[in-house]
Amino acid sequence: MEERYALLIDAENVSAKYIKPILDELSKYGNVTYKRIYGDWTKSQSASWKEVLLQNSITPIQQFSYTYGKNATDSAMIIDAMDMLYTNDLEGFCLVSSDSDFTKLASRLRESGRTVIGMGESKTPTPFRKACDIFTELELLLDDIKDGKKNEVTKGQIEESVIKIITENQNNDKETGLGEVGSRLVKLYPDFDVRRYGYSLLSKFLETFPKLKLKQDGTQVTVMLYEDKSKKEMLEEFIVQQIKDSGAQGILLGTLGNRIHNKFKDFKVRDYGYSQFKQYVQSLHNVEVEEEDERYWAVYKK
Question: Which part of the chain is the HTH OST-type domain (predicted)?
């Protein structure tokens, strides 16, 4: 049975332009049975939201701003969330706000065993992010990440975290599945999202780390370490695997070269005793380079 979620939106701290990405993202987790949005609908700044409420079956909750400068939606959202917690069979809540005032609410819902998904703009304070099981920046859903934007968690930190996860499992004679890596990274870094680093899939993101390799057996994907191998061995194993995965047609040398540079940033063919990339690829066991329409393909031959 699909998990049921309540979607609660703070209209005073989130733009209406995010509504479709919010609903699309939340649909990945379960069925949204409650969709409510809180704000003072007498204000002109709420006009943009009014246009999308009916289209998306979202129930507006009126809250008058009796006190200047105070977000009147806070108390209404909190009261509704607690009512739902005690009177409805919900597995989780999605709290959409860029306001830290919902930090305590997120913590309380989690204490009651509910999953809390937070969504907010990049300005969202850290306490609210960390109070959620999962936190997603709304700008990421719109693909609005700008070049040069600073990531709070570096790729190096993520790689070391994954290595630690795999090592812990190895000590307990366990393999590490891709799903486990994803869930544990979110627990370590609640706002972790591969889209922040320019990838749509966790598997493609992890493949860029030199110390990690992925093995697929049917639908099961296992994340492993390159253990006790020289850089040359790791490189050759990676190249051959890329060629194998490309099937009978093989892979264009240009595409293969790009993948190598993404994985091994300092790769230079001259370091391996060759003046041309084609010659180096041809030297690998069971690999041949074929020419077709003035383009070169690396093909794996058993």
Answer: 154-229, 231-302
Q: Which fold has domain 231-300?
A: Nucleotidyltransferase; domain 5 (3.30.420)
Burial 236-271 (b: 16+ CB within 10 A, else e): bebbbebbeebeeebbebeebbebbeebbeebebee
Amino acid in position 29: Y
- Mean pLDDT is lowest, of 20-29, 65-74, 116-125, for 65-74
Distance, CA of 291 to CA of 175 (rounded, Å)? 40
Same CATH fold, 231-300 and 155-225?
A: yes
Q: Which CATH architecture has domain 155-225?
A: 2-Layer Sandwich (3.30)
Amino acid 21 reads: P
| Interhelix angle 103-111/73-87, nearest 10 degrees | 10
- The domain limits of the chain are 4-141, 155-225, 231-300
Residues whose CB is less than 8 angstroms from the CB of residue 136 and which lie 6 or more positions away in sequence, other chains included? 25, 117, 118, 119, 191, 193
pLDDT digits (tens, 9 = 90+) for 202-234: 999 998 898 898 988 888 999 998 765 677 888
pLDDT per residue over 133-146, tens digit each?
999 999 888 764 44
Contact 62, 12 (CB under 8 A): no
> Whose structure tokens read 């306001």?
99
Cα dihedral 212, 218, 219, 221 in deg (nearest 10): -10
